[in-house]
Protein 1
Amino acid sequence: MYRPQSFRVSDSATLFAFMEQYSFATLVSTIEDAPFASHLPLIIDRDHTPQGAILGHMARANPHWQAFDGSQEVLTIFHGPHSYISPTWYVTEPAVPTWNYAAVHVYGIPRIIEDHAWLSSLVDRLSAIYEAGRPQPWTGDVPADFKTKLLKAIVGFEIVITRIEGKFKFGQNRPCEDQLQVVQQLEQSADPVARALGEMTKQRLEEESS
């Protein structure tokens, strides 16, 4: 990923927190010399290995997992909030339109895990993560034979992380007054994704000024 110095994020705590918050990611690898992508909810395991790992599963009918041969590196893209930025928002001139966003790219070599108990625990953990905070969380209570049938239809995997690239493009290359103006405009947007970007940008500015 192209990362000008002003947009680079290297702090591991910041990167892992971002990945956990935006955990529905795009997993990309190569099948028969062509790019192939799957869109998946993933678990970030900070403690399983020294570098951390990504855990997930996909449909057995998805040919993607068959490329996990233990030698090919894959790319997992975690997408954060993003928005168009109008040059009319800036105080400093000249200015042109741009797009601000946050993204983290994670690299590693996946391995398939067929163990029934491991896979059952994984789907339970995923459900617990996404049910958390709901007024009446789903308990995951289903008949054992039904769950066994479903588990046979999916394949689990683990990706031990070898490299992480973080990029938070929030306009850090522009004067502080321009960045503050962008935050103000984003916070007033009708688009919730743009407002989330405004909140991230504001938080980053506060961290850098403290």
Protein 2
Amino acid sequence: ILLPGRLTRWKGQTLLLDALQQLADVDFCCALVGSDQGRNAYRDELEKIIARTGLGDRAFILDNCDDMPAAYMLADVVVSASSDPEGFGRVVSEAQAMGRPVVAANHGGAPEQVLPERTAFLFEPSNATSLAQALRRALTLDAEARELLKQEAIANVQQQFSKDRMCAQTLSLYREVLRGNAYGDGGH
């Protein structure tokens, strides 16, 4: 299980650790990957939670990773557990681009980036039990379901989030603005 993101409370590391406690019967290893950016107290808090909850041999805090594609490829599941909605959290699309199942909070831009129950499992924001249930679904995919998810996830990102598509949509918006139709009311 990989949760990439700087160590800051709103990225959801404590929520993930709470959820992992509900998966005692599941074999997993969890990596929280990201810099604490000087937030030593928060990192210490996370380390204490890991020790106190008995996750010391299953959950690890790692600093920055210089090869995120490799980190994604080592993961069976990638988590985006932000407590605050993100407009476009890159983790969700990056994980799909690498063919990895995503478990993400059902708010912000995450639901718009995935195919629910096909490339990702959404959970109720800030709800550890809901996150644990989504993780369980993702972690227990059989080989055939995992391969289908991989293919759909990669195709979804290539079709929806390619640089060519972004450029074309941006230029289309600029043309609308120049025509005075950006708001469908003649620019008024």
Protein 3
Amino acid sequence: MPTVLVIEPDDECRARIEAVFGFMDYRVLVCARPGADEVRVVVEGDAAPGVVLVGPGALVAGGEGGLAELAALFPDARVIVTGVEEAPAGSPDVAVVPFPLKLEHLKEALGGQREAPRAAGGQARDGGGLVGEGRSMMGVRRMIEQVAGSEATVLVLGESGTGKEVAARTIHALSPRRHRPFVPVNCGAIPAELLESELFGHEKGAFTGAISARRGRFEIAEGGTLFLDEIGDMPLAMQVKLLRVLQERSYERVGSNKSLRADVRIIAATHNDLEQGIAAGRFREDLYYRLNVFPMNMPPLRERTEDLPHLITTLAERIEAEGRGSVRLHERAVRALMGYGWPGNVRELANLIERLAILHPYGVVDVPELPERFRAHLGEDIPDLPESEAGTAAMGVAAGVGHHLPADGLDLKEYINQLEYTLIKQALDEVDGVVARAAKRLGLGRTTLVEKMRKHGIRRPEDVTDF
């Protein structure tokens, strides 16, 4: 998801801005007070925002000079000012939109601006996120709604690629701490000797290479949520120190004896069986019970294949919205994928859709076009469609079954033209370019098809005889 940083001191005004960006499927970071130091605290530990919106109250409180400072802090971001009639004199290149915000004005100001991929410190995108209306995902949503408003420690369990971080971010977004930072840490990706400094920070000279004091993730997450991913890979020595923080709600930087207060909510996640880890001596039992206050299991994709069509639709729409191409899947292909085991879960599905968008841009992918591993379980059998569904399945609309209007609408004329182009190309490819046979497949007269081909600039191979 693209990220927007909203700077606005007024709670009501800020909530209205958040609602508009939320509707546009942006992830929203909030800074209630204007000023470079406050902004750094909010953004530190997260990806740089692709969009910065300065609300009317922030412009009054921070002054016009703050815009230049913001542009310097986020040189790749689109800076938008709202609540004024024109950009302040001498300000950097900013867009001005009226307040209250309207979608059409905001889209024009954004100009297709999208966030760059997350930096290495962030987690890989899950892709489909919590998309799905099946029983298992509805259960996950209910649990998130129940626990979000509390301060309970949450332990998210599930295989890699099932969306554990997405669930954690959703809990944070629905919690009273949503206006403070969400800080993720992958405990398995940081060397054991650096993990203590990463979590608690260090003082200047605390160890070789500590040339200046540095805040840890606990300090960065102050007032917000600290997400400890792959907690099962944390070394035993660090487990002892983390347990102390959870019990006493205080810690010290490396090289300091000054205690710092830990006002953070902990959400942990792992793909490991922690009870087996306890039996093997790899994980502390007392820490397990501290973390396991509210356990939540993320179902693997193979157990919720009823969500697969909706996931495919969502992933294809995101790729299209980000300007990275587009692809449609024939319903036969969707049915074939529903029989695949999905060891990589939603992350594997996201990679497949991106790959298909590169290999078959603006095309309709049927079973033979799927990579071999995704159709190996079929053998020689290609799933057939009931006769009543065959016509609508050929449409390949929205990368799967069903028709879903994007939240921000679409250009219907352009969409229909693109769909017509795709289906004509597919029909011609299937009959080796013979126009008369393609016209028959499409239920058109030959002359009508030739006119449509001319309209779309489609040329058949010159060496094909039309008969």
